[in-house]
Amino acid sequence: MADSPQHVAIIMDGNGRWARSRGLPRAAGHRSSMKVVRKIVEECVQRKLGYLTLFAFSSENWRRPPDEVGMLMNLFLDALDREVADLHRNQVRLSFIGDRDLLGAELARRMHNAEQLTAGNSGLRLFVAMAYGGRWDLTQACRSLAADVASGTLAAADIDETRVAERLALAGVPDPDLLIRTGGERRISNFLLWNLAYTELYFTDALWPEFSAAHLDEAFESFARRERRFGKISEQLAAKADA
Ligand code: FPP
């Protein structure tokens, strides 16, 4: 059976529905969701998880009404102001993945500062995906490889899976062991398309603002019951365990 996950990725869905079910504006759901982000990061620090990757804003989320996009960007700015010192105290190393050129200059500046401040920390590595899409990630990796081929520093024939992985946003980071998606939908929604190839998927109907440490326990327990074969057969895994 699987050990504890080393890298967990989360699609935090259901903020809008949570708010609507309480007769509140969608913005109230997003604000409430920040408390859950804080709680789950704390839980992951306590559990000594290696890597946590949170999908905060997708390439497709730009299609939301401008008011909601603006509200979310302000929420991210506030969150950076409020949370970074605490993350730093807890030895969390914070990094962002996604197309920063699409974000406002002030947000990009604070993201950069937060990364610089926490760069030397040795605890949880927290990746926040902002303006991120798996197709964007693969496209920018292709562009980077093509530029090297065009300049003559790389032969097209030398492009292999390792070289592609090196150009992705999560280069050097082990692939997620477990993906959790809240909010009842059962899809990947253009998250880490390359990195999720062998990730165990866990879907829960809990909406993100109501996701708790107990829900996280359930996800980890489900993960512990999975048999991760990575293309092999059960007997091969059993033989290795006996050796
Ligand atoms: C999902 O709910 C939420 C989003 C698409 C973006 C908002 C995310 C946060 C506020 C968390 C931010 C996290 C960090 C680390 C900065 P939804 O609006 O899609 O809900 P719905 O499916 O019920 O409409």
Structure characterization notes:
It contains eight helices and six strands. It has 243 residues and is α/β, with parallel strands linked by helices. It has one domain: Decaprenyl diphosphate synthase-like (Undecaprenyl pyrophosphate synthetase), CATH 3.40.1180. Strands 3-4-2-1-5-6 form a six-stranded parallel beta sheet, sandwiched between helices. Helix 2 (26-46) runs parallel beside helix 3 and helix 3 packs parallel to helix 4 (105-118). The longest helix has 24 residues, at 66-89. The protein is globular and about 55 Å long. It binds farnesyl diphosphate. Farnesyl diphosphate binds next to helix 1, helix 2, strand 2 and helix 3.
Provide the fold topology.
Elements: E1 7-11, H1 15-21, H2 26-46, E2 51-58, H3 66-89, E3 93-97, H4 105-118, E4 125-132, H5 134-151, H6 161-166, E5 178-181, E6 200-203, H7 213-224, H8 234-242
Parallel strand pairs: 1-2, 1-5, 2-4, 3-4, 5-6
Helix pairs in contact: 1-2, 2-3, 3-4
The chain binds farnesyl diphosphate.
Descriptors for this entry?
single chain; 243 residues; alpha/beta; Undecaprenyl pyrophosphate synthetase; six-stranded parallel sheet; globular; binds farnesyl diphosphate
